[in-house]
């Protein structure tokens, strides 16, 4: 498959280069409009050369001197080497034993055996393996897309080959009962136009009942095609069309080349004709016109395509004067040389193939040198931390997590990371927190967004793994998404200090692996209101993160019936906010769009918390404004008891009824909302609730 991918990329490269030449040939062809058509026919040689030959010599008059030396697509670059170079660089950070064995980061949290101690120990190993693997994953995704495009390319070629074979069989069937007239000339009553057919031994097929003059005109035309080898040229051109079927300019070039072939042949035949014979020749051409019934690929037919252009050219044909002939030859030769050669390199005159190879070697050298430099820097930093792991100058400044009393909790990114009888460590999308169970307050916190962890709400989870030593001291490894060793941190919980990630900082520390999954609890305690990691305390007692609503101040650490309120108004680091961060609404909207039940639940929740921005995030046709947000926050109306009223046949539109309690306490009324499955968004509510 790799060979096909490389071949496909080379073909694409060739098509881009040839596309420029085709446009130039078309322009020169217009310039030669009043010249014999044989000049225009000769120009297509350079197009075939560019499509067939991957290398060429350099010259001062190449058309590519008009472009930058690094023109569209460098020819002859071994793309497989480039791909291998990228993989080699990524392999310096992580060893990938098989390209088919890719670690899925989501499997860390979704595996069925996540509660086992062995899994918890292996979790840190898995995290280490996926650190720095982003480049390798990118290469694998790149190769996947190339494989898909290569598949379509091969499929297209096979389709056109099948079409060609079927067309060939149809023509063969029509001429199977042809009667030999003489030599290689045959008469057949099943054809509507004379043509040349055959590759090795071409034959001329004529319809019956042609008089002597008609036969002479037609045979002169077809014999010249054979003499000039046009039947071979046309088949080679069609083969190039099959290979480059995805390039529209190649189809244009094929059409114009066939027209120039026929018109140049016409001019050669009528050069000695008087006007009377020219008219007869034109009449025959019109009589055998096949432009409305021809196959996509057809043999050299006498009345083939663009009949009116050919007739007009015949009637207007004049012998060319010598000075004009010389000028046409010069134009054609200059065009052929300029289009068949490559731009001369400013730095050297060597072959482009050597330049391409040197370019690859240079790229490989730079990338590998940078990789070695990074590894060397990492090694030096490791040695420094080993000698001075607690020096103040190595500490990264950090600020405490930013939250307000009305901040909302994104349930998708909430995790309990450590727990004992004195303290717990947990993180949400905005920060990592250390909570003292004895003092019942937050001791320390880290603003994860300031550490480029804001992607937890829009891209993937921020991994936090806690390690503990024999003295009970703990350190947390923070790995932002996308996971990379260059962006990892180590947080010393006891001293509230943050360091750049280094394994030396975790010497004598072991992974804290006492959690089980809430899905493994058999006491019926499992609920969406709790984080997945749960600390077993014996006798059906568990320590867990728990919340009543998505409001941050309603989040607790719960041990049995005892609750520790984790966020109090007094410890808030921000004043009460008008609305949440945009990333919060994006995350909620993305999750809500996956199912109609989730969309209803989230919409009802935002409505009952009087968050107009949240309603806008889940709705279409509703625009946000600060004024409406403030007005809606003062409301006390509630939605409850959703009931389905109807849905469309394709189940992409639903109408639900809610019981509505207004601001004045005048009892319940009925309001309705319409849900639509919107392309690329998922389920969304249409407008605001309305009464009927």
Layout: helices, strands, pairs:
Layout: H1 2-31, H2 37-52, E1 58-59, H3 79-91, H4 107-110, H5 117-130, H6 134-174, E2 179-182, E3 185-188, E4 195-197, E5 203-207, H7 212-228, H8 230-243, H9 248-270, H10 275-287, E6 300-301, H11 307-315, H12 322-340, E7 342-343, H13 352-387, E8 415-419, E9 423-427, E10 431-436, E11 441-447, E12 463-468, E13 474-479, E14 489-492, E15 497-500, E16 510-511, E17 516-517, E18 533-538, E19 541-547, E20 555-559, E21 562-565, H14 582-592, H15 596-608, H16 612-617, E22 619-620, H17 626-633, E23 638-647, E24 653-661, E25 668-678, E26 682-690
Parallel strand pairs: 1-7, 3-5, 22-26
Antiparallel strand pairs: 2-3, 4-5, 4-6, 8-9, 9-10, 10-11, 12-13, 12-16, 13-14, 14-15, 17-18, 18-19, 19-20, 20-21, 23-24, 24-25, 25-26
Helix pairs in contact: 1-2, 1-6, 1-12, 2-9, 2-12, 3-6, 3-13, 7-9, 8-9, 10-11, 14-15
List keywords for this structure.
single chain; alpha+beta; 17 helices; 19% strand; five-stranded mixed beta sheet; elongated; five-stranded antiparallel beta sheet
Descriptive notes:
By secondary structure, the chain is α+β, with helices and mostly antiparallel strands. The protein is 41% helix and 19% strand. It has a 5-stranded mixed sheet with strand order 2-3-5-4-6. It has a 5-stranded antiparallel sheet with strand order 15-14-13-12-16. A hairpin with a 2-residue loop joins strand 20 (555-559) and strand 21. Helix 10 packs antiparallel against helix 11 (307-315) and helix 14 packs antiparallel against helix 15 (596-608). It is elongated. Mean pLDDT is 76; it is low at 68-117, 130-135, 291-295 and 345-393.
């Amino acid at each position: 498959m790799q060979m096909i991918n490389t071949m496909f990329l080379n073909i694409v490269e060739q098509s881009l280069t040839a596309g420029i030449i085709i446009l130039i040939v078309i322009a020169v062809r217009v310039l030669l409009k009043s010249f014999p058509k044989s000049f225009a026919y000769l120009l297509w040689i350079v197009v075939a050369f560019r499509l067939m030959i991957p290398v060429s010599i350099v010259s001062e008059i190449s058309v590519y001197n008009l472009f930058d030396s690094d023109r569209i697509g460098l020819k002859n670059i071994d793309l497989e080497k480039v791909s291998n170079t990228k993989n080699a660089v990524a392999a310096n950070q992580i060893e990938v034993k098989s390209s088919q064995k890719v670690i899925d980061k989501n499997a860390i949290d979704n595996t069925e055996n996540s509660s086992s101690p062995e899994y918890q120990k292996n979790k840190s190993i898995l995290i280490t393996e996926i650190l720095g693997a982003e480049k390798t994953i990118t290469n694998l995704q790149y190769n996947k897309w190339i494989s898909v495009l290569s598949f379509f390319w091969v499929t297209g070629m096979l389709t056109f080959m099948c079409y060609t074979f079927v067309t060939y069989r149809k023509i063969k069937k029509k001429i199977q009962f042809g009667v030999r007239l003489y030599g290689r000339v045959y008469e057949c009553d099943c054809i509507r136009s004379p043509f040349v057919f055959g590759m090795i031994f071409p034959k001329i097929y004529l319809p019956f009942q042609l008089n002597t003059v008609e036969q002479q005109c037609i045979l002169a035309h077809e014999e010249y095609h054979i003499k000039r080898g046009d039947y071979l040229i046309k088949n080679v051109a069609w083969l190039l069309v099959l290979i480059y079927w995805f390039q529209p300019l190649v189809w244009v070039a094929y059409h114009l080349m066939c027209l120039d072939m026929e018109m140049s042949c016409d001019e050669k035949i009528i050069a000695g004709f008087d006007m009377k014979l020219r008219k007869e020749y034109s009449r025959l051409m019109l009589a055998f016109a096949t432009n409305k019934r021809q196959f996509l690929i057809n043999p050299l037919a006498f009345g083939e395509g663009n009949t009116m252009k050919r007739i007009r050219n015949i009637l207007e044909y004049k012998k060319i004067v010598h000075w004009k002939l010389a000028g046409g030859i010069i134009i054609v030769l200059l065009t052929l040389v300029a289009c068949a050669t490559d731009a001369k390199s400013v730095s050297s005159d060597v072959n482009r193939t050597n330049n391409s190879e040197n370019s690859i070697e240079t790229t490989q050298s730079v990338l590998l040198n940078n990789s070695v430099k990074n590894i060397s820097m990492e090694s030096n930093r490791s040695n420094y931390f080993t000698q001075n792991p607690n020096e103040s100058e190595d500490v990264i400044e950090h600020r405490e997590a930013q939250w307000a009393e009305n901040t909302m909790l994104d349930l998708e990114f909430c995790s309990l990371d450590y727990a004992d009888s004195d303290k717990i460590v947990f993180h949400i999308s905005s920060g990592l927190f250390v909570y003292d169970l004895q003092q019942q307050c937050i001791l320390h916190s880290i603003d994860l967004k300031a550490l480029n962890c804001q992607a937890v709400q829009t891209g993937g989870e921020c991994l936090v793994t806690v390690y503990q030593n024999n003295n009970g001291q703990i350190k947390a490894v923070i790995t932002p998404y996308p996971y990379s060793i260059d962006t990892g941190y180590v947080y010393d919980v006891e001293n509230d200090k943050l360091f750049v990630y280094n394994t030396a900082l975790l010497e004598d520390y072991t992974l804290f692996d006492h959690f089980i999954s809430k899905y493994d609890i058999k006491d019926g305690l499992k609920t969406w209101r709790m984080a997945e990691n749960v600390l077993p305390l014996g006798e059906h007692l568990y320590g867990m993160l728990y919340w009543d609503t998505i409001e941050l101040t309603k989040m607790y650490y719960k041990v049995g019936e005892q609750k520790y309120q984790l966020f109090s108004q007094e410890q808030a680091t921000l004043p009460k906010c008008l609305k949440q961060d945009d990333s919060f609404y994006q995350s909620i909207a993305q999750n809500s769009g996956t199912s109609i039940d989730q969309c209803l639940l989230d919409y009802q929740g935002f409505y009952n918390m009087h968050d107009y921005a949240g309603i806008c995030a889940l709705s279409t046709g509703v625009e946000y404004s600060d004024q409406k947000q403030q007005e809606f926050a003062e409301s006390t109306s509630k939605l409850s008891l959703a009931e389905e009223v109807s849905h469309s046949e394709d189940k992409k539109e639903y109408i639900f009824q809610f019981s509505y309690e207004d601001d004045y306490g005048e009892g319940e009324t009925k309001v309705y909302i319409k849900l639509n499955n919107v392309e690329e968004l998922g389920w969304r509510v249409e407008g605001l609730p309305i009464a009927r």
